[in-house]
Amino acid sequence: MRCPFCNEASNRVIDSRLSREGLEIRRRRECDECGRRFTTRERLESVLPKVIKHDERREEWDRSKLEHSVQKACTKRPVSENAVQRLVDRVERRISELGEAEVATDRVGDAVLEELSGLDVMAAARFASVFREFASAADYDAFFATLDDGREDR
After folding, report:
1. In the chain, where are the structural domains located?
2. What single DSSP character describes residue 27?
3. Residue 100 carries which DSSP code?
4. Cα–Cα dist 20/122, whole Å
5. Runs of H (alpha helix) within 20-136
6. Strand partners, 15
7. Radius of gyration of the chain (CA)
8. Which tens digits make up the pLDDT trace of 114-134?
9. Is 101 exposed, middle or buried (0-12, 13-18, 19+ CB in 10 A)?
């Protein structure tokens, strides 16, 4: 691992910790050349399916896109960064457990909506408005009605 400040390859690990429900190792490192400290994260690389977009294009799985869309939906909501990361972890796990080579964006979006609905209803509504392309207030009414129906079933 090269130092992000001086690009030197020699550094040492100062501290290692498990994080994210034991799925990731966080390492604090110190550069032997410049003495600055930085953090690296190790995670088991899982093979995730390609994503089939609405226009039938195929793209490689990109965790950062998923993180960005969830973070955008959670802007100015009482949702911590850790909660967002755990949500993205759960969605990735669900998608990888499908065991499919390709997955449609609709399945990914539905998984995110299900997770977000349990975390923050308003963030879920924001996400749904973009994901399902809401065009009117009736679309929001229908979304909240499905949430209410899901709660009554419990």
Report:
1. 11-43, 50-152
2. E
3. -
4. 25
5. 63-73, 81-97, 105-119, 121-131
6. 28
7. 19
8. 999 999 999 999 999 999 999
9. exposed
